[in-house]
Design goal:
323 residues; alpha/beta; TIM Barrel; 2 domains; eight-stranded parallel beta barrel; 13 helices; globular
């Protein structure tokens, strides 16, 4: 498929989504201060970010509300306490995981919500359940994406079948998700071509959500964009589970659209992200995450290893080889 745009052009179809609270919340159990969330909202609006994801719509039956901050659950009143009626051009999104969300109850009709977009996160084997969630959210009036996770661990035939099934649904967009940070730009290019075939067949758009285990989150994001992906995820200072994500400051520096403004992001990094790091929150590229990415494994083992402050990288590597 032909490259879309070049380094000097502006693609009007590209949108940027900030996932700092949602993916970053996996670092600190969503224990963000209201000051942090307020500052992030204001920074995103000023920076021209198109969509801000506030967190998960997780089930309070499955997850103990005393063990997580409120952005694990994204109650309507909590979002409204930050955004009011959201009198801005920026959309508000939440993520709903298949099997972890009481979506029929917890996701209300769009007319009663300040949320604009619901992102349904699913593994390949959960696609039928994901489609049920997609149709529910669309019927309630939301823009809906399907985020197919851990695609690096799926058979290409299964990915193609999943895309066909999701393509036939009412979903608006379909995401490439490199959950393990295992993919290289060449693989992203091929995957984006595959996803774009479905997008063009069924009138969908394609999104990209990258992890930075091999320091390729930014490279993979712009590779997907060059091949047609148009909804691009990023987080402030790359904050996200394990090795983190594509950094917002990198992505906005790259995009040539004058509606994006880097300066508010830099101010936010100074005032909020640096103190957050100093308080003990840990994310970002490190050798353990490189190893799980290299071996195409879930980063949970590397997260535990990092918490123990171990540095016996070779032993950790051999442990991973035995899994």
């Amino acid at each position: 498929m032909a490259q879309k745009g070049d380094l000097m052009t502006v693609r009007s179809d590209i949108r940027v989504l900030d996932a700092t609270i949602r993916d970053g919340g996996l670092v600190n159990s969503f224990m963000f201060t209201d000051e942090f969330i307020n500052a992030l909202y204001r920074a995103n609006v000023k920076a021209g970010v198109d969509v801000m994801e506030f967190g998960y719509k997780a089930s309070k039956e499955l997850f103990d509300v005393n063990k997580f901050g409120k952005w694990k659950f994204c109650d309507e009143e909590d979002i409204r306490a930050i955004v009011g009626e959201n009198n801005s051009d920026m959309k508000i999104s939440v993520m709903a995981d298949v099997g972890r969300c009481d979506y029929k109850h917890d996701i209300v009709d769009k007319k009663d919500s300040v949320i604009d977009m619901v992102r349904v996160a699913t593994y390949i084997h959960q696609i039928p359940a994901a489609i049920d969630m997609i149709e529910d959210a669309k019927a309630k009036g939301y823009e809906v994406t399907c985020n197919i996770m851990a695609v690096s661990n799926a058979q290409e035939g299964d990915v193609a079948q999943a895309l066909e099934m999701v393509g036939q649904s009412s979903v608006d967009g379909i995401y490439i998700v490199d959950s393990y940070g295992a993919l290289f730009p060449e693989q992203i290019r091929r995957l984006t071509d595959l996803y774009m075939e479905t997008a063009e067949k069924y009138g969908k758009y394609i999104g990209m959500h990258a992890h930075n285990n091999q320091q390729l989150a930014f490279a993979n994001t712009i590779e997907a964009a060059a091949n047609g992906a148009s909804l691009l995820d990023a987080t402030m200072m790359g904050m996200g589970r394990g090795a983190g994500n594509c950094a917002m400051e990198l992505l906005l520096s790259f995009l040539k659209n004058p509606r994006y403004n880097l300066f508010p992001v830099l101010k936010f990094l100074e005032s909020q992200m640096l103190p957050l790091k100093e308080s003990g929150a840990v994310w970002g590229y490190d050798i353990p995450y490189l190893l799980t990415g290299h071996l195409n494994q879930h980063p949970s083992a590397a997260i535990d290893y990092t918490k123990e402050k171990r540095t016996d990288y070779s032993e950790f590597y051999t442990d991973l080889l035995d899994k």
